[in-house]
Specification:
four-stranded mixed sheet, transaminase activity, Aspartate Aminotransferase, domain 2, 188 residues, 12% strand, 4 helices, PyrdxlP-dep_Trfase
Length: 188
């Protein structure tokens, strides 16, 4: 169920999320738009109160930080994209990070043809496919990871000027920064 966004940050509006939650809701999926985190404090509370999962779309948030914690380390599942236009790119593909071992193992089964990591007899625990990253893709991403912090520092340094210049264009409203996002890669 799509909900409206906060007009300042372009991220999902927690009040709109709360209004949309029903007994059929299974997950809340905020997008950290252009590197700006959705209000994770409010969304964590909403998810806990409703007893639903929180699944972060962190495709724009490589290297971003919310109150000192990096995207992917906020206590819920987070998905990253390495599609050709992202901060770190491998052409396509992505990565998913998990807050606990149980979820990680369940995902491992799906990504590894349904086979547990200890299986040597092709005893599939569930259906799955081959979603494993190849060595070449990993090497490309590893090189990009080594320069990500430097690239983010440059973007953060240049954002105030870009934001001011964009604001001078009639009808253009630059994305606001929530101060709890203490590191914004300014994707896009």
């Amino acid at each position: 169920v799509p909900v409206d966004v906060d007009l300042d940050t372009y991220c999902v509006d927690p009040a709109a999320v709360e209004a949309a939650i029903t007994s059929r809701t299974k997950v809340i999926m905020p997008v950290h738009m252009a590197g700006q985190f959705a209000d994770m404090d409010a969304l964590d509370k909403l998810a806990a109160d409703a007893g639903v999962a929180l699944l972060q779309d962190a495709a724009h948030a490589h290297g971003a930080q919310w109150q000192g914690r990096r995207a992917g380390a906020l206590g819920s599942v987070a998905a990253f994209s390495f599609q050709n236009g992202k901060l770190m790119t491998a052409g396509e593909g992505g990565a998913v990070v998990f807050p606990d071992e149980e979820l990680r193992e369940r995902a491992f089964l799906v990504h590894s043809c349904g086979r547990p990591r200890t299986d040597r007899d092709y005893l599939h625990g569930t259906t799955g496919s081959n979603y494993r990253m190849g060595e070449f893709t990993a090497a490309v991403l590893r090189a990009q990871l080594s320069r990500l912090d430097e690239q983010i520092a440059v973007r953060e340094q240049r954002w105030p000027l870009l934001s001011r210049l964009l604001a001078e264009i009639p009808g253009v409203v630059p994305q606001a920064t929530d101060p709890r996002t203490d590191r914004n890669p300014h994707y896009m």
